Amino acid sequence: MFDFSYKEAYVFSFISRVKKGIEIETLSTLLLGLYVCDFLDRHETTLNKENETFHDLINEYFCEPRNVWDQGNLLLSVLRKLRNMKILEVKEREVFEGFSLVHFMTKESYKKSSPTENLNNFIIHSIKKYKVIDNEKNLKKCVELFNEKLFSLFHTYDTGQTKHELRFFWPGRMIPKVYQCVGSLFDQKNYNESYERDKYILKDDHSILKLRKNQLQIKNYLGVFHHIGDFTKKRRLQSAKDTDYHTYVEVLKKRFITKIGPQSKIEFSLIKAQKKSWKTICIESNKIETVLALSFLINEEHAEISTYPEFLNKI
């Protein structure tokens, strides 16, 4: 038996059991479960102490942003370790005319089952399946406290009137990688292809003001959380002529977009601006935790994370 870390046991469990047909909210919740496993790995020795309380340790984990949000992609690092153990197979193919889809799967056949509705129970069950646990009572208490703290952070964000957006840019010569280890989120047949010629009016680095088909559209910037921009919903303003605006950048786009329910979408785009080519991926949702979780599935290597106006002002 492998001496798995908590993260490794958890990731291996849901890769080996969760397959197609998984809903986006379930997938997002599963991915956020990596945070509690990261916490458990950091404080593994405390799990064996009788009557240990975890409130202070959990609060300490969240008190400094770098403890949680700035430590890199939790999923990607675990997938690499599991692959090095030679217990995962990897298939890679091109999608969306210049992006790479990396598909991780278990080498052996394992019993397949859907995740339970309760994330806490699913985490505990997943860890116990592939890791020896000395004190299940303390483990259960820790997982419950941690997830209560984690999800309370997201409740402070309005899920009705705002949109949360995370956008990555790569130079056109790069081949950005996305990861498919559960479900079929990046199945190209579910994406619609479109072409746009947008003119971005560069008022500032954040608020998105653009002219599309002679229609002025605006999304006002409200704030940021771990690179995820918080915007008002898109509004259409009065018709406008090109001559009304003198400072703009024209962007030609070939887009592949899928809507996930009424409030979320993913976009892959090939763009041209300032006589240069770029690639961009955007995750957008009314739920900030969905954007954060799905960001684990994108390899940020060589990427720049920014809003369209911020990016265009730089180039």
Give an overview in words.
There is one protein chain. The chain is an alpha+beta fold and 315 residues long. It is built from nine helices and 14 strands. The protein has two domains: 6-90 and 110-154, no CATH class; 162-314, Hypothetical Protein Pfu-838710-001. Helix content is 32%, strand content 32%. Strands 3, 5, 6, 7, 8, 9, 10, 11, 12, 13 and 14 form an eleven-stranded antiparallel β-sheet that branches. It has a three-stranded mixed β-sheet with strand order 1-2-4. Strand 1 and strand 2 (99-106) form a beta hairpin. The protein is globular, with a radius of gyration of 21 Å. The protein starts with 5 loop residues before the first helix and ends with a helix. The mean pLDDT is 86.
**Residue-averaged pLDDT:** 86
Order of helices and strands: HHHHHEEHHEEEEEEEEEEEHEH
Count of helical regions: 9
How would you classify the quaternary structure?
Answer: single chain
| CATH architecture assignment name of the largest domain | Beta Barrel
Q: Would you count the extended β strands for me?
A: 14
Tell me the radius of gyration: 21 Å
Q: Report the end-to-end length measured between terminal Cα atoms.
A: 52 Å
* Computed structural class: alpha+beta
Question: How much beta, percentage-wise?
Answer: 25-35%
Shape: globular
CATH class of the largest domain: Mainly Beta
Q: Which fold name corresponds to the CATH topology of the largest domain?
A: Hypothetical Protein Pfu-838710-001
Helix content: 25-40%
Spans where pLDDT lies below 50 across 5 or more residues: none
**Main sheet record:** 11 strands, antiparallel
Count of discrete structural domains:
2
